[in-house]
């Protein structure tokens, strides 16, 4: 098994592979504020929204993750980046999310962004919170009861920021 | 002069009046993360984006303010509302923003939202910060240097929340 995933810009032909990762993530409804019954077309519109640069992570010839990089705001807020990341359910624990995050930080810096902000990290997703912290992100805000988790009920969400 | 503005849903015919308020606000670039050279069409698309309910405040027969009310997120985050408010430059200090905020809180509660969140209150906009605090909002996050102010340079922005 490849130790480190290869990350490259997503092609139109990658839509099936991206949806195959997004679908179980969104259906589970535990990590993104996205309707659990979202359609393939709506999910891909969200992931590939105007202004999003989309990438995929490959390992052993398979697409095992995807992320998008964008400006978090326009105008006077356009110097702060934002990213979203998903990992295939069979590929967790292999460093895919960390590799994508580090790749996004490098690309964001190269594009001139001075910070990266995550707007809505769900507190019950403890593995993600720890991972982002280990990538240099700090919790700068706590949104009380901002997410309705399908098993846990209302849980907090965090705003996390890292300077570049 | 009317003591309290009258607030009603915006009609298509109100676009000129809304733009007349948005234009100097966005051109100044001190309070919203919006390009200062935004066009009328783009600004109205932003203000009247899908999912936004738009209202106007009238005082003495003139439109002196506008706000939008929307869900801040989808799916598991759809129970938290978001609003944006602008006041005509000649109508500040007359309670227009407060009246719109209180109206939006009432409408948000009636629609079943359990909280209202402001994602990006620019810290140098001290009058707004104090106003939202007096309307029951608390600062729950601080986004360091998240906004490039045209006169002050990089300033912080706040995330503010109020339960309903």
Strand and helix order of chain A: EHHEEEHEHEE
Could you tell me the number of beta strands of chain A? 7
Q: What count of helical segments of chain A does DSSP give?
A: 4
Largest interface: A-B, 37 and 37 residues
Q: Give the strand content of chain A.
A: 35-45%
Q: Major sheet of chain A: size, sense and barrel closure? A: 7 strands, mixed
Low-pLDDT regions of chain A = none
The amount of helix of chain A comes to: 25-40%
Query: What is the 3D form of chain A?
Result: globular
Radius of gyration of chain A: 15 Å
Q: What average pLDDT do the residues of chain A reach? A: 96
Please state the oligomeric state of the protein chains shown.
Answer: homodimer
Biggest sheet strand order of chain A reads 1-2-3-4-5-7-6
Separation of the first and last Cα atoms of chain A: 31 Å
**Helix/strand/pairing class of chain A, anyone?**
alpha+beta
Outline the fold blueprint.
Two copies of one chain form a homodimer.
Chain A lengths: L5 E4 L5 H14 L11 H8 L5 E7 L2 E10 L8 E8 L8 H15 L4 E8 L3 H9 L3 E12 L3 E11 L1
Parallel strand pairs in A: 4-5
Antiparallel strand pairs in A: 1-2, 2-3, 3-4, 5-7, 6-7
Question: What's this, in brief?
Answer:
The structure is a homodimer of 164-residue chains. Chain A has 164 residues and is α+β, with helices and mostly antiparallel strands.
Outline the structure in words:
- Two copies of one chain form a homodimer.
- By secondary structure, the first copy, chain A, is α+β, with helices and mostly antiparallel strands.
- In chain A, about 30% of the residues lie in helices and about 35% in strands.
- Chain A has a seven-stranded mixed beta sheet.
- Chain A is globular, with a radius of gyration of 15 Å.
- The model of chain A has no long low-confidence stretch (mean pLDDT about 95).
- The interface of A and B includes residues 26, 79, 148 and 163 of A.
